[in-house]
Specification:
Number of helices: 5
Strand content: 5-15%
Distance between the termini: 20 Å
Oligomer: single chain
Largest sheet: 3 strands, antiparallel
Structural class: alpha+beta
Strand order of the largest sheet: 4-3-5
Number of domains: 2
Radius of gyration: 19 Å
Shape: globular
Helix content: 40-55%
Number of strands: 7
Order of helices and strands: EEHHHHEHEEEE
Length: 239
């Protein structure tokens, strides 16, 4: 049973969560909804800390320690969500997360130094980028889990643009590239001008090896039937 989502077991082959009681899989769109809710909550906590710092109600050292704790918790939680639980995080995962956190901590120190000259909106935008950088952990670890699967169908992935959000030229290019084998997916928030402000998502599909050529480089939609209703995977309704 997953130690991240009580009542659910993680099926490593499909990289999806399954309800232990009913045996039904949770749709990936629902898991991403949980991710986004958690990111918003984390960002709100960091915003409150930063407002208190800006208004001199919180000492810089206290703010720095609290922000480090929040970022450490967020990065580990989102990585665990993509991996299937905290117990599935490997030493390599923890090492990569640690390296990312060290870079984030350096930025936090820079923010402390700028608090006297930066405006509050500027400081809050930095907080948003920190929260978004942690969000990337989910897409990165899920990609790695799917890439590790051997045998059976081939997992493919593609970038999806969040409606109404501003997108940089890098994200638009990733979207235009369409489906690729999952190993080549650039996780949202990586290698783009948006960075932590990226609001893109990624979707995944399993196809037979002989059908791979029909998908790669296209934006073909995934349609599936469930209880007589057609669900469009690309729009996030299907798992």
């Amino acid at each position: 049973m997953s130690d991240y989502l009580p009542g659910y077991a993680f099926d490593r082959r499909s990289a999806r969560y399954r309800d232990v009681a009913t045996g039904r899989y949770a749709s990936r769109s629902r898991i991403v909804d949980l991710l986004e809710e958690s990111v918003q909550q984390s960002e709100s906590r960091m915003q409150r800390l930063t407002v208190a710092l800006y208004e001199q109600q919180l000492a810089p050292a206290v703010w720095l320690a609290a922000m480090r704790d929040e970022l450490r918790r967020a990065h580990l939680q989102y990585a665990a969500l993509g991996k299937g639980g905290f117990d599935r995080l490997t030493l390599a995962d923890l090492g990569r997360i640690g390296a990312t956190l060290r870079q984030e901590y350096v930025k936090l120190v820079g923010t402390v130094g700028d608090v006297q000259t930066a405006s509050l909106p500027q400081l809050l935008n930095r907080v948003r980028r920190h929260a978004g950088q942690a969000r990337t952990e989910y897409f990165r670890t899920l990609r790695d889990v799917l890439a590790e699967n051997e045998g059976g169908p081939v997992h493919i992935a593609r970038r999806i643009l969040e409606p109404g959000a501003e997108h940089c030229k890098d994200c638009l290019r990733y979207y235009d590239e369409g489906w690729s084998v999952v190993e080549l997916l650039i996780p949202p928030g990586e290698q783009c001008e948006c960075g932590g402000n990226c609001r893109c998502k990624a979707i995944y599909h399993a196809v037979a090896a002989e059908e791979l050529g029909e998908w790669l480089g296209t934006k073909r939609q995934v349609i599936r039937q469930a209880r007589g209703v057609t669900y469009d995977h690309v729009l996030g309704y299907a798992g």
